[in-house]
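dumping the sequnces here before i forget
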Amino acid sequence: MMSETNTLNIGAIYPCAKTLGPGKRFAIWVQGCLFDCPECYSPEWRSVKIKCLLPLSALAEHILRTPGLEGVTLSGGEPMLQASALFKLIKIVRKSRSLSLICYTGFTLKQLRRQGHPDRTALLGQIDVLIDGKYTPSLNDNQGLRGSANQTIHFLTGIYADRKVEFISARRAIQIHVDEDGLLAVGVPPQGFAKDLKRIVKSVK
Ligand code: SF4
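..and the predicted 3d for all of it:
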């Protein structure tokens, strides 16, 4: 039986990501993760406390009124901890628009299939590309859209079959967005990025 929920606990959203998959993408970083990857990219989104509860209807509306989107990218935090809400969100959105779905997760695809968790299985059924496994900084080889070489990019549907190279070995880029809430780095960080960013922030202060 699937869980009943109509809200999503959000770490951050960014409606015009150009660095997390093909085209312009609506990026959603969910709040909460139970993994403990060393040098986690996003420690501020690991706490499983409530950060910002967004109604699914409002988030879906935001996605649907964002022009020029190719798709949605889910990251975090750990999307599979909120699989029920994310499944519902993508179902609402896809009723009106055909958008692709890319999802990062610390679980491996094998683990998710073995678990057979109904919510996670339902969400998996909506995902076009799954980038799986825990981040391992010593295996960060600056290649493509996965954070480290132990992670696998699974093309679960044929939608990006002709763009695999882009996912696997494209040069990474980071978008930096600054607003009143602070700085948001959008993309898969290359090795040493956290240190470089700190240096840049210091130099402009
Ligand atoms: S899975 Fe992602 S958010 Fe969770 S600890 Fe690892 S890098 Fe951080």
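The longest strand covers residues 7-17.
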